[in-house]
Amino acid sequence: MKYQVKENDIRLDNFLAGVMEVSRSQVTKMIKAKEVLVNGKLVKAGFMLKTGDEVIVNHTEVDGLVPEKMDLDIVYEDDDVIVVNKANGVVVHPGAGNRSGTLVNGLLYHTKLSDVNGDERPGIVHRIDAYTTGLLMVAKNNKAHEILAEELALKKTYRKYIALVWGVITSDSGEVDAPIGRSKNDRKKMAVRADGKEAITHFNVLKRFDKATLIELRLETGRTHQIRVHMDYIGHPVVNDPVYGNRKLFDDSGQCLHAKELGFVHPRTGEYMQFDSELPECFTNILKNFE
Which residue numbers are catalytic? Predict the structure, then answer.
């Protein structure tokens, strides 16, 4: 894997932990194993990177991905596409040091997936965080994957989320148009940054409580942690989010954020398809505290 550095004065271990979405300890093991090169040279974990540096990671796993039997909530399936309702706490695809227990492992046991993304993310057209629940579309062959990915890139895919956020939002609707990039202070977090990538989120208020607001959100773009970052940015972080907002946590079930609706044009038939899913118990249990 090759990465281009776009910032000055970033520690190598922090940089890789962020872009690879792994822990610093995992990165340190790779560096000590001489699997990481900066501009063609071996360096230490604390090496300070500069803009333009090239980081190459030659980390390989001995074994490929192992299909694992898993309870999957499949909403729709045909020869080209699967729509799955992802459970809370399930990571979508494997990463360095995390080769099992992911949605991809379960899907590989169930069926064959596209290999457009290589061995690491077979079938995955888009993803949601481990502790965000809800609908995902997965491609079973390469042609379907390419068409669905293009549709997503052209902002034609319909995605509606439900979130419970802290504070009372007074306006009935709104838009957050703020670019998102990797946080300079914490490489595992994202942040609104002037030099980030375009990110647009629309929201409508569904119900107001004394200390929180239930909202629906529609994404124009799909940046990492987009909803969580945008809502924190406007002062209404997602309830029970352990990373953003620095607010009270009710339990360890993660943020009250659910990918409720998903719509797309079928890659083979050209038919528009739309799916809906119910709020999970982990979400509704926390919601009861505000009703």
Answer: 129
Biggest distance spanned by C-alpha atoms of the chain: 58
CATH 3.30.2350.10, applies to 160-258: yes
Please give the backbone phi and psi of residue 235, each rounded to the nearest 5 degrees, phi first: 85, 15
Provide the whole-model pTM.
Answer: 0.79
Give 14-61 pLDDT, tens digit per residue. 888 777 766 677 788 889 888 899 999 999 999 999 999 999 988 655
CA angle, residues 120, 59, 111, in degrees to nearest 5? 15
Of the options 3.65.10.10, 3.10.20.70, 3.30.300.20, 3.10.290.10, the CATH number for the domain spanning 2-57: 3.10.290.10
Q: Domain ranges in the chain?
A: 2-57, 160-258
> Is 169:236 a contact under the CB 8 Å cutoff?
yes
First-to-last alpha carbon distance for the chain, in angstroms, is 48
Look up tokens 């490489």; give the residue.
Answer: 187
